[in-house]
């Protein structure tokens, strides 16, 4: 028999994170496009981001037939957070036309699934691409990052908002993420964590 889960944060009721989810305002609008494979992921940090940001929307799917309408937000300048050779540093892009707030489109999935989202939704290919600074490291201490600078979706959103809306900070969004990690470490035991993760520097 499965354990009852919170309908909001989707965590087991005895590990509900809702009390830690801040309600944060941002000038930037977030459109998070989540691949269906991420919905039942143990972390699902994109959902935590959408719950914590008042000006955010989370949409699940592979093909988004109404994407044009979602991107046509009056008064917003859309861009795609996707690091590649064509991407402009986010700080540089945000510094242009500062009177117009950004609509930041964030694909949520593995790199392969994120690329599939772009392939299935050609309109995404037409958006200016922006990237985060190099040298960032994830707070997720239980898994080795697939590549240098790889962050969870929530961490990437926090870094992006810190850049776009400086000096405002968005660290409050990370509270449930940190609690989730601490809970996983506690469940496996501190000794096991140190042996399998901390001592290897992962």
Please outline what is shown here:
With 202 residues, the protein is of the alpha/beta class.
**Adjacency order of strands in the biggest sheet:** 2-1-5-3-6-4
* CA radius of gyration: 17 Å
What percentage of residues falls in helices of 4 or more residues?
Answer: 25-40%
Number of domains: 1
The overall pLDDT, averaged over residues, is 87
Determine the number of helices (DSSP H or I, runs of at least 4 residues): 8
Number of E strands: 6
From the spread of the alpha carbons, the general shape counts as globular
Order of helices and strands: EHEHEEHEHHEHHH
- Top-tier CATH class: Alpha Beta
- By oligomeric state, this entry counts as single chain
Report the end-to-end length measured between terminal Cα atoms: 34 Å
CATH architecture: 3-Layer(aba) Sandwich
Strand content: 5-15%
- CATH topology term: Alpha/beta knot
Structural class: alpha/beta
Keywords: S-adenosyl-L-methionine, Transferase, tRNA processing
GO biological process, one term: tRNA processing
InterPro entries: DTW (IPR005636), DTWD2/TAPT (IPR039262)
Protein name: tRNA-uridine aminocarboxypropyltransferase
